[in-house]
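Researcher: Following up on the earlier apo prediction. This time include the ligand. It's NDP, with the SMILES given after the sequence.
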Amino acid sequence: MNKITIIGSGNIGLSLAKGLVNKAYCKAEDITLTRRSLKSLSEEAAKGFKVSDNNKVAIYDANVIVLAVLPQQLKKVLDEIAPAVSPEKQIVVSVVSGVTCADVREKLGNNVQVIRAMPNTAIAIGQSMTCVASDNASDEQVDRVTRMFETVGAVVTINEDLMTSATALCACGIAFFLRAIRAASQGGVEIGFHAHDALKMAVQTAKGAADLLLQTQSHPEGEIDKVTSPKGCTIAGLNEMEHNGFSSAFIKGIKLSARKAGGLYND
Ligand SMILES: NC(=O)C1=CN([C@@H]2O[C@H](COP(=O)(O)OP(=O)(O)OC[C@H]3O[C@@H](n4cnc5c(N)ncnc54)[C@H](OP(=O)(O)O)[C@@H]3O)[C@@H](O)[C@H]2O)C=CC1
Ligand SMILES: O=C(O)[C@@H]1CCC=N1
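Model: Understood. Below is the ligand-bound prediction.
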């Protein structure tokens, strides 16, 4: 039986909980959600989730403890739950950016198995890209956590030293693509579409681009070559974007996010 306690039920904690229930990994009643402001969880309580503002009590029954507070809030939470964690029956999964498995064990004890996971908010609809890493968990526990995240998206297992890069590319990355879609829709309005039509067209076009790569396993540039007719309008627009730093801006943003993600714990 999967009993999961999510400590820190904000944006990503709740997205994970919703995704797991929507994809029938477990029932709402198998998930305990915590935060300090309990009234903010009244909607989830009405949907059958257990809710609590007492982390120590909330982890009592859990097989899986998910840490999903901000990096700057984590030390206090770890100090609070340390005496109550049972290394024999519980595994700790941390989605907290910039905090290593060793950092977590420093507070919870060296015998606790810790797995880091880096999902994105599309986990709520079962479409996350989640990276998983651990430096001490057994293969069996890593498999178990991988299967959990596979019910709500794709999973790649990585070395822990690439976790801040995964944070930038996948967790922050969804915001970068969302902004790109928003920018496309704003361009669409300038060339004549009403806002809601422009957004719908931009969203479906972005989905088509992603699905094309996923389903054909082709390279983006190969697909771009099929769109850019000689002397045509696509290459004119694409080159104008590149003259204005499109790829360069994207790459620089990802590099800055990765640097920032690495420093959040002691921020
Ligand atoms: N947002 C995202 O897309 C992603 C975020 N992450 C990581 O997940 C973590 C959470 O991020 P995010 O969801 O955006 O942040 P949020 O601020 O939305 O969520 C954090 C939650 O933690 C709760 N909280 C704070 N202190 C405690 C405490 N002592 N006990 C219990 N709950 C507490 C807060 O509620 P209250 O104030 O009521 O206690 C809040 O709801 C971060 O470490 C982030 O790096 C990872 C991948 C993606
Ligand atoms: O912005 C942040 O710090 C968090 C981590 C990854 C996504 N959101």
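Model: The longest helix spans residues 195-216.
Researcher: Noted. I'll compare it with the apo version next.
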